[in-house]
Specification:
The protein contains seven helices and eight strands; from the N terminus they run ααβββαβαβαβαββα. It is an alpha/beta fold. The protein is globular.
Length: 196
């Protein structure tokens, strides 16, 4: 909806969307390959201006036939007792899970390291492993009944989604307009229940 709103307001602006891991997006911003990123924050970003869009809770995600499907929250210890498909240790999501595991005394064992969101979800759908993701990432699969999602508890884990631009170069008018559209539209979608 955000891109639709932007395109309706600015039909002559060319939009290019890049999908990648948060660290890669920040690298692309630094190199000037992209002008703006919607990314998860993992600490302070030097040389970047970030505006918080939302904070998302992370969920255990898996096949609907899993013994952990159904119910409300699931403890991190129980979740991590299952085979997990998670990104590698350099990924912010993995570091969040590892930190929460250490703090709760849980062990992160039996991990298939997968730096591909599509493959993480495929492994979860096929019942090979569970994964940890925000609801927005798996909303379509949940609606189709392909996956289940339960919020992580004891401890709960969340991460912050932000719009990020570099401070080292002036923003184009199109970039300013896109940032404005995101900052105006995302909160309205969240309030209306249309996020994800």
């Amino acid at each position: 909806r955000i891109l639709e709103n932007f395109q309706a307001q600015y039909p002559n602006v060319r939009i290019r969307v890049e999908e990648s891991l948060s660290g890669h997006l920040i690298d692309m911003l630094e190199r000037g390959s992209i002008d703006l990123a919607i990314t998860y924050l993992a600490g302070r970003l030097r040389g970047m201006d970030s505006r918080l869009l939302l904070e998302e809770s992370l969920h255990l995600v898996g096949a609907v036939g899993s013994s952990l499907a159904g119910g409300r929250g699931v403890s991190l210890t129980v979740a991590l007792s299952q085979p997990m498909a998670l990104p590698g240790p350099d990924h912010a999501l993995r570091r969040l899970v590892e930190t929460a595991a250490r703090q709760s005394g849980s062990a992160l064992n039996n991990v298939i390291e997968v730096n591909s969101l599509a493959l993480q979800m495929e492994l979860a759908t096929r019942g090979v492993a569970h994964t940890v993701l925000p609801l927005a990432t798996v909303a379509a699969q949940l609606a189709r009944g392909e996956l289940f999602a339960r919020p992580l508890a004891n401890p709960a884990i969340s991460r912050r989604l932000a719009i990020v631009v570099p401070r080292s170069r002036p923003l184009s008018a199109a970039c300013v307009a896109m940032r404005k559209t995101w900052l105006e539209t995302a909160p309205a979608l969240i309030r209306s229940g249309n996020w994800p």
